[in-house]
Amino acid sequence: MSVPAAPGPSRGGRPPLRSLATATPFLALVLLAPAGPLLAPHPVDRPVSAPYAPPGAGALLGGDQLGRDVWSRLLHGGGALVASALAVAVTVTFLAAVLGCFAVLSPRLGRAVERTADLVMLLPPVLGFMLLALAWPGGRRLAVAAAAVALGTPYAVRVVAAAAAPLAVSGFVEAAVAGGERPVHLALREILPNLRSTVLALFGLRFVEAVYVISVAAFLQLGPQPPTPDWALMIRENAPGILLNPWAVVAPALAIGVLAVGTNLAADRLLPAGRRTAALR
Known about the structure:
281 residues, mainly alpha, 67% helix, elongated
């Protein structure tokens, strides 16, 4: 049985409207990303102005290095990034939640998780996904996503296992063990439901990490390749002309920053009051 929740909101609970307002940037970008191509005024591969032209009537944010509409490419460039980051965050959080709960019930699995996490943390993340992406040349974005999952899961499992350790020796789990419940029941029905705050906070962190990894890979051209519209790739391609049309670089950089910061704020506001600090102890 899981620990019952408090009967009502605490005095320190966050007002729903304030929580919704804080999560608005994240929700807006997530909703806009798949709908962006439908709102783009120009094709992403058609020049509409001179290279690095300033914003004007024909191009809201000016032109890029080939004279293509920056605003149209910005609207097209977020869908794949958001989808990839969500897939990585969901996969890592799911694996961490399940494996972390089993790790506290099996000393052998717990030691294996701890040693693996120690080894992974010794490998710089950028070097790790570069090695996997280069070893899988045709994978591109899929290879980067696989690297993000492989490198992020051991540490995430360790976080969940640390949060689940006190629950594994609590009275209600010991009562379930005495009643003959199997480890699957103990992990998924007794421990996991009491880790909602930790799992939610972990999902937010993993999403931001995935955005960082995928964006860095695109900037290094290990993921999507030109002329694919991609926010990080737009920054790399248009950096030489930043003084001519700053929006060609600033707009995608702001989009990535708002997406990452908005995710953290949204996850933080969705946490129950008083559990934000305890979630990642």
